[in-house]
Amino acid sequence: MKPFKVAFQMDPLNKISQKTDSTLMLMVEAYYRGFKLFHYQPKDLFLENNKVKAFGYFFKIEKKGTKYLFKKSNKQSIDLENFNVILIRQDPPFDLNYITSTYFLEKLNKKVLIVNNPSSIRNHPEKLSMFEFKKYIINTLVSSDIQNILKFHRKNKISIIKPLYGNGGEGIQKISNNICESKRIINTTLKKYKYPLICQKFIKDIKFGDRRIIFINSNYEGSVARIPKKNSIKANFHAGGIAKKTGLVFRDKKIISAVSKFLKKNDIFFAGIDIIGNYLTEINITSPTGIQEINRLNNFKLEKIFWNKIQIKIK
Questions:
Q1: For labelling alongside 67, which of 4, 51, 181, 261 has CA 20 to 30 A away?
Q2: Which residues pair with 48 in a beta bridge?
Q3: Hey, which residues does 216 pair with through a beta bridge?
Q4: Which strands make up the sheet holding 279-284, listed edge to edge?
Q5: What is the pLDDT of residues 200-253, one digit of tens each?
Q6: CATH class label, 5-115
Q7: Superfamily (CATH H level) for 139-202
């Protein structure tokens, strides 16, 4: 029987956070199951005579104390059709390089399971896909026009702005009644990121944190509250948010039901949604995180559920 092969398209292995990275847990569980693991970076993906290939490394995992170490083989070029599963796990920015990788991966034989579906990643950017659920989102504008954003902000009185394709809490700012200061912040942010901004009415329930809710194969599997540090509005773990155990509160169950149907329809296997109070704020399908925090707080093993469902899916 041929070994089960998994390729990870992601950032360099030495950048993995041992305490928070969800991909690490997926790798470790796959390795313990005897799968052959391969790593390549998006920049090493290429198309040659209609064959999708990548330069990368097969690697093994060794645990030393509480830390996982990676033992890499020699770098090689390999046809990605040799793999059973490819996981797209690099962090944004969601730019043309990211989009190009989805075009390449779409050319692979359908026997190769790609998580998540490349066309779904491309067609459903995380901060835009929430518009599929109008009754569950707060008043929201997406625009590059300063006057348009200011007009919308005046109605809100207090707003949050953030770059459309940012991640990890990057660029999130709170603007208030001081219009001159708000205009300066908006202008500076537009110049820095060079693409539209999202402007949303400020949700006061952020003081209770936002909730990251994980779906595997369109089913709800766990959640964690992310509490902002004192005097901060950023709850993302990358921005210093603190993990806290949570159940399903506010309108979580209704939102989960609606999002689950959307994920199933669009062949999105692994996703994480963010909810503040009663409002859906994001659907993350590029590189969802939260597995380690949910595991620790609930004594779960979400990575086992993930691979169990993958193996069922490709039989």
A1: 4
A2: 51
A3: 219, 270
A4: 242-244, 219-227, 210-216, 270-276, 279-284
A5: 999 999 988 899 999 999 999 999 999 988 888 877 777 678 999 999 999 999
A6: alpha beta
A7: ATP-grasp fold, A domain (3.30.1490.20)
